[in-house]
Structures are given as C-alpha cells and as structure tokens.
Design a protein that fits this description.
Layout: E1 2-5, H1 11-22, E2 27-32, E3 37-42, H2 50-54, E4 59-63, E5 83-85, E6 88-90, E7 96-100, H3 107-120, E8 124-126, H4 144-157, E9 161-165, E10 179-182, H5 190-197, E11 203-206, H6 213-225, E12 231-235, H7 253-260, E13 265-267, H8 269-273, H9 276-289, E14 293-297, H10 315-331
Parallel strand pairs: 7-8, 7-14, 8-9, 9-10, 10-11, 11-12, 12-13, 13-14
Antiparallel strand pairs: 1-3, 1-4, 2-3, 5-6
Helix pairs in contact: 3-4, 3-10, 5-6, 9-10
Length: about 325
C-alpha cells in the first residue's frame, strides 16, 4: 500500500503519521520526489483503515499495490534510483560501460585489458575471479588470487571493479570489491541474497536463465528487505528454443523494467549472444531501448581465453562498439 501525501504536508505531520503506522506493525518507507512525498507501507496492511487514512488532511490518495515486490516497485519510489560507485553514477540519465575478461587469468592479462577498455570508454572493470561452470573440469577461476589481481588493476587504472560472488562465506574476500555481482545461476539463491541485503555495497543482480521479470524483481526485493537498496539489475539473455545464439536477449525487458521499478537496468550482450559478432548490434539495441549501461566481455586473445572466448571482443573491436554506443547516446 502507498499513501501519497500533499505537497504542504509538514515534517511533523509526516513523522506523526509514520509513528502511527509503525505502531500497527508496518514498515514505512519514505520517498520524497520532486512533486510528491510517498509513504510505502509494507506488512499486513489489512490492519489499516483505508478510509481513515484517506480522510487525513495531509493525505492526497491511498492505493493498494497488487505486485508482490514492494520496495523495488516504482510506485513506492517514482524517481529513478541512482547508484553511486566510486564517484560514478548508474541510473537516471547516467550511463556506464563495464568491460573486461570473463575470467582473470594473470596479472599481465587483466592490467593490459583494463588499460585498453578504459582508453576505449569503459568506466568499470569486470572480471571473474570465482567462476560457476557447467562442467566441474572447466577452469573455475583464480578465486581469492583473482580478486587481488583485480584490485591491482584498479590501483593502476583507477577503475572500480565488479566481480561475481558464489557463496556468502566468501563475503570477507569482497570487502574491497566495488560492485558485487550475483550471477544468473544464483539469482534465486535466497540465503545469499539475504546476506547481501545486510551489506551496503552495490549489487549487480543478473536475471536467471529461465526466470521471469517478476522473479528477478522478487530477488531484488530479498536484498532490499535486508536493508541494501543499492541494486543494479542486469538483463543477460534467457533460454528459449532458439539455437542460433547462446541465449535470447530479451530487449523488451529494458522498457518493461523501467515501468515496473526504479532500479537501474544494464544489459550484458556478451552472455546473451554467445558470439562476438552479435555483441555490437545487441549493445546498440540495448542502448537505444533505454538501458542504463552495458556489460561487455573483452579479451586480448579470445582464441586462447580460458573461459567464453567465443563471445569476447578484442580491445580493438570493443573500441568500435564503444564509439557506436556513444553516437546512439548522443541521439537519445
């Protein structure tokens, strides 16, 4: 349930109403927009007399929300959420490109790629330290050593880093990581999401391979319910019957999510396609559709990459994509 307050509502009136609602066992989320102040009520709202609430002089309207996601709902928070990372902003009119290798393989590799993608326009360095792989015999990542190498690349380039977590027991290792990524396979790892809700770091939450948009938002709700509102959603393609690409990029998810939630949305065209030749057109489509950023895999030697070389761009190819994305942004 949301209560939209009149513009002339005083801070004292808002505080008194909040205390009254909390006294009925509800959690109250206050959102101050440019034109309205909204109280989002979470809990058993059947205890609230809607007519009594609407009758208060300070209340403009009261509305029940049918969607199960409450905190992530745009009706609770009409203005776009803007996530800040080391001085960079994601969301609203702000656009960032995250780029780097699927897996961190060596110090020389990650630092060279970091310098290349930064020069080409990327602002955030991505790289996998812990790698969830379908086969137990595939490269699983350098783990803690991989994070140390990412931090060294950050030291040399100044780029904030984003890398994937697989287990809540590893949280201590992510203390200096700027954005913690939850991969598609862990989107509904609810115990992990609860733990991430207790930290204040930005979380990049990827949509699962076969999950609906509502399920993605419910996973975001888990994190917000724990107290962490710094969430970036990521559309990375879903599984369909099509076999000509690794996954199918659900480009419609971008405008749909914009209508449903205040959280920023980025798109990963690399995992969505599985082929380097498809990354550029999908990146341009995502930008035109209104995404707040892109996540693109870049490797200096894709043929010999230890993970997902087929979908990785070379630094030169990434430079061209970044330039094209910039022109799309200028048009928008």
């Amino acid at each position: 349930m949301i209560a939209v307050l009149k513009q002339n509502a005083t801070n004292e009136q808002i505080e008194n109403l909040t205390e009254w609602l909390e006294g009925r066992g509800l959690n109250v989320h206050l959102s101050r927009g440019e034109f309205h102040t909204i109280l989002g009520l979470i809990g058993d709202t059947s205890k609230v007399d809607t007519e009594l609430l609407e009758g208060l002089e300070m209340v403009e309207s009261v509305k029940r929300i049918s969607e199960p996601f409450k905190n992530a709902n745009r009706q609770f928070h009409p203005d776009d959420s803007i996530i800040e990372v080391c001085g960079l902003k994601i969301g609203g009119p702000n656009f960032q490109i995250m780029a780097g290798p699927c897996s961190v393989e060596s110090e020389e590799q990650i630092i060279n790629i970091a310098k290349s993608v930064k020069a080409a326009g990327a602002s955030i360095l991505r790289g996998g330290a812990f790698k969830p792989r379908t086969s137990p015999y595939d490269f699983q990542g350098l783990r803690a050593d991989g994070i140390e190498l990412l931090l060294e690349a950050k030291k040399q380039t100044g780029m904030p880093i984003v890398t994937e977590i697989m287990n809540a027991n590893h949280l201590d290792l992510f203390e200096q990581v700027d954005i913690i990524q939850v991969g598609a396979r862990n989107m509904q790892n609810f115990e992990l999401l609860k733990e991430l809700g207790l930290c204040k770091k930005p979380i990049l939450l990827k949509r699962g391979l076969a999950n609906t948009i509502q399920e993605l938002l419910m996973s975001a709700e888990y994190i917000i319910a724990g107290g962490n509102r710094n969430i970036i959603l990521c559309e990375r393609g879903i599984r369909t019957f099509e076999t000509y690409s690794r996954n199918t990029l659900d480009i419609s998810a971008v405008p749909i999510l914009y209508g449903l939630t205040h959280l920023p949305v980025v798109v990963d065209p690399s995992h969505a396609s599985g082929f380097a030749r498809l990354v550029s057109p999908l990146a341009l489509a995502a930008t035109a559709a209104g995404a707040h950023g892109l996540m693109i895999e870049v490797h200096n030697d894709p043929v010999n990459a230890m993970c997902d070389g087929a979908q990785s761009l070379t630094p030169e190819e990434f430079t061209l994509v970044s330039q094209k994305v910039g022109r799309i942004r200028e048009v928008l």
